[in-house]
Design goal:
Pfam families: BPD_transp_1 (PF00528). By secondary structure, this protein is an all-alpha fold. Helix content is about 75%, strand content about 0%. The chain has two domains: about 140 residues, no CATH class; about 210 residues, MetI-like fold. The chain has a two-stranded antiparallel ribbon. Helix 1 packs across helix 2 and helix 11 runs antiparallel to helix 14. The two termini are about 45 Å apart.
Length: about 400
């Protein structure tokens, strides 16, 4: 281990590994974006990355040295001797973009990873710091790829026509010269497949589920957090027991019960059953937050003559807005994405939710681009809602973790 804790050795190893990561990433990105063949050369990536890592780690030549390293990497890629190999079918423009992107991203990120490493031997802290920075960068790239690649494939497929998909189903580039014709699948979704109704149904059901859940979860969570009654501890520990039973086990009894009562194929039936799955998790999340609120504030309200309900309405709820926002968002996402119950209980297309409507598109008679377009329509609203309210969700989920 002591042999590794040397500037030259550490820089060479981390530089080589980082070049493999970046060359693979750039190859995937450019292949998806342009449809041209790009692939990393692992051996050349190790050689170029190790050599460049030593130069950048020892800060040889300063900024001029870094620029020369970037130029050398880009030139090697264009000549077919670099970490990134370009197919003969690729255009000169896409090859140049890939080479420059790889060179600049490697030099810039390597300087950050190998920043402040002294010449010669490294202390354990300095060595571990460089390794952690490398692993952090790798983690960002890896998890970003896991999230973005499926979504990118989904979006690009939705913009294709049937002829393009049949010709090359793995070509995820787009022809911008088609203009608005790219969005014909989305137009057909709303004009031929009634997706506007599905959107309205899902939105209505999700909003009603949020209100019903909060109406039951707020007083329940407050009672568990503040009031003293027999069985309180057992109730608090058993709130999430319903999640120990898979929903598929309950699906058949629910189906039979709803069929006997006439609630099957009814949006009101869906609104009634969804809170059963969301109230426990809302109770669990809110009780932790309520416990973290200072009890003295509520006691002061009671001493001023407020009733318990008035204390909840005027004191507890205003202080709990971050938690309520996060719980509401979480419940909305559960209701929006729920599929099993909607699939079992809804048969009338006019009452389909988005998830049920997307399932109806999964047919050999319906082009695949319509299925992907439906998935985009279902994903984008909830993604925008999450990104817009993410700070409230983070604050609400963590605020109740520490009491006082």
């Amino acid at each position: 281990m002591k042999m590794l804790r040397h500037n030259a050795v550490t820089s060479a190893i981390l530089g080589a590994l980082w070049m493999v990561v970046l060359s693979t990433t750039i190859a995937i990105v450019m292949s998806f974006a342009t449809g041209d063949p790009f692939r990393p050369h692992i051996l050349l990536s190790l050689i170029w990355g190790g050599s460049a890592g030593v130069i950048l780690g020892r800060d040889l030549g300063g900024r001029i040295g870094a620029v020369l390293v970037a130029v050398a990497i880009a030139a090697a890629c264009l000549l077919g001797l670099g970490p990134l190999l370009v197919g003969v079918e690729a255009s000169a423009f896409s090859a140049s973009v890939a080479a420059i992107l790889l060179a600049l991203s490697f030099v810039w990120s390597s300087v950050l990873i190998l920043n402040d490493l002294p010449t010669g031997g490294l202390t354990r802290h300095e060595f571990e710091g460089a390794v952690i920075r490398f692993l952090t960068g790798f983690g960002y790239i890896f998890f970003t790829a896991i999230v973005l690649i499926p979504f990118y494939v989904m979006v690009m497929t939705s913009l294709k026509n049937q002829a393009e998909l049949m010709q090359n189903p793995l070509d995820f580039s787009i022809d911008l010269s088609q203009g608005w014709a790219l969005f014909r699948s989305y137009d057909e979704l709303f004009t031929q497949f009634n997706f506007g109704t599905y959107l309205f149904n899902s939105f209505t059901i999700s909003v009603l589920t949020v209100f019903i859940t909060l109406a039951f979860a707020i007083p329940g969570a407050y009672a568990v957090a503040r009031l003293r009654f027999r069985g309180r501890a057992a109730f608090s520990r058993s709130i999430l027991l319903i999640y120990m039973v898979p929903m598929i086990v309950l699906a058949l009894p629910i189906y039979i019960g709803f069929s006997m009562t006439g609630l099957r194929n009814s949006l009101w039936g869906i609104v009634m059953i969804y809170p059963v799955t969301t109230i426990p998790v809302a109770l669990y999340m809110l009780q932790g937050y309520f416990r973290g609120l200072p009890a003295e504030i509520e006691e002061a309200g009671l001493m001023d003559g407020l009733s318990r309900l008035a204390v909840i309405w005027k004191i507890t709820l205003p202080l709990s807005l971050p938690a309520l926002a996060s719980v509401s968002l979480y419940i909305f996402m559960i209701a929006w994405n729920e599929f099993l119950l909607a699939f079992m209980l809804l048969d009338d297309p006019s009452r389909f939710t988005l998830t049920r409507g997307i399932a109806s598109l999964n047919s050999s008679e319906i082009p695949r681009q319509h299925l992907m377009a439906g998935s985009v329509v279902a994903t984008v609203p909830i993604m925008a809602l999450f990104l817009g309210l993410e700070r409230f969700m983070t604050k609400g989920l963590t605020a109740g973790s520490v009491k006082g």
